[in-house]
Specification:
274 residues; 27% helix; 4-stranded parallel β-sheet; 5-stranded antiparallel β-sheet; alpha/beta
């Protein structure tokens, strides 16, 4: 059997969910097919040469270990390390600046800028959101009134994103493996982001999600398309998580959960072949 280095931070204090529960389930299934070594994201260097594939899972925001993460990315190239997801994505694995690119391309995304000079690209409102480009899990996110926006942006680094505060009906996430849709979950109560229920997407919903999967075009791996349904009934992209998306596997029915694992195993086998 091939050896997988399963990278996760089992004790990362995520809001509304326990990483270790999902990872204990997933590793219990993957070990049926692979030899597994589990390590903390800051310890990858000690084990990477002994693994056939490095699976980057619930490691928490890489901003928490930015220097070691950047060093890992350099070693992947220098040593031809095989990773899952493949590290050729254009979205969250490189920070959130892609949201500006998608805004400029006029794709259905929450409008995003990184300078006050482009404020005219955003819909007018009384409240805005600012957040760091390398943030995750709402770290560094602030709600700012319009008359204080210039002052707040100047007080932060240039690596700050600005978005309008969107009134939305609910948030919904679409989960893909190797560009193939697997399942969707949504939060009926928008004030309880991680109280999720299974969601049956329409053809229009899937067309929306697949548009971003095709744009990103990673070679292999798991992606999560996070969106919100605005008051006009349209979906807008919130973020495209293409490094280590939390999967909420334990919120699924047993059948869907097991189906996901089998598809993931097949995907891992493809990744092992390069």
């Amino acid at each position: 059997m091939h050896t997988i280095l399963f990278v996760t931070d089992l004790y990362y204090p995520a809001k509304g969910r326990n990483y270790y529960e999902e990872d204990l389930f997933l590793t219990s299934k993957l070990r049926e097919t692979f030899h597994l070594v589990i390590c903390h994201p800051e310890d990858i260097a000690a084990f990477e040469d002994h693994a056939d594939l490095i699976v980057f899972r619930n490691a928490g925001p890489v901003a928490n270990f930015k220097v070691k993460y950047e060093a890992f990315r350099k070693r992947v190239i220098a040593k031809h390390l095989n990773t899952y997801n493949s590290l050729d994505g254009k979205a969250d694995m490189n920070g959130k600046e892609y949201l500006i690119e998608l805004t400029n391309a006029q794709l259905p995304v929450i409008p995003t800028i990184d300078t006050i000079d482009h404020l005219d690209k955003l819909p007018q409102g009384h409240m805005y959101i600012i957040k760091p480009k390398d943030g995750a899990d709402s770290v560094g996110l602030k709600f700012v009134e319009k008359d204080k926006l210039v002052e707040e942006v100047k007080a932060h680094s240039k690596d700050t994103l600005i978005q309008p505060l969107i009134n939305f009906e609910y948030e919904v996430s679409f989960y893909f493996i190797d560009k193939q849709f697997q399942y969707a979950l949504y939060a009926p109560d928008k004030d309880k982001r991680w109280e999720l229920k299974e969601y049956t997407p329409t053809d229009k919903d899937l067309h929306f999600a697949k548009r971003f999967i095709e744009w990103n075009n990673i070679h292999w791996g798991i992606q999560r398309i996070d969106a919100c349904r605005n008051e006009q009934g349209e979906l807008l992209l919130v973020e495209l998580e293409d490094l280590n998306p939390y999967l909420s596997l334990l919120e699924l029915s047993e059948e869907k959960r097991n189906n996901f694992v089998e598809v993931m195993k097949d995907s891992l086998q493809k990744a092992l072949k390069g």
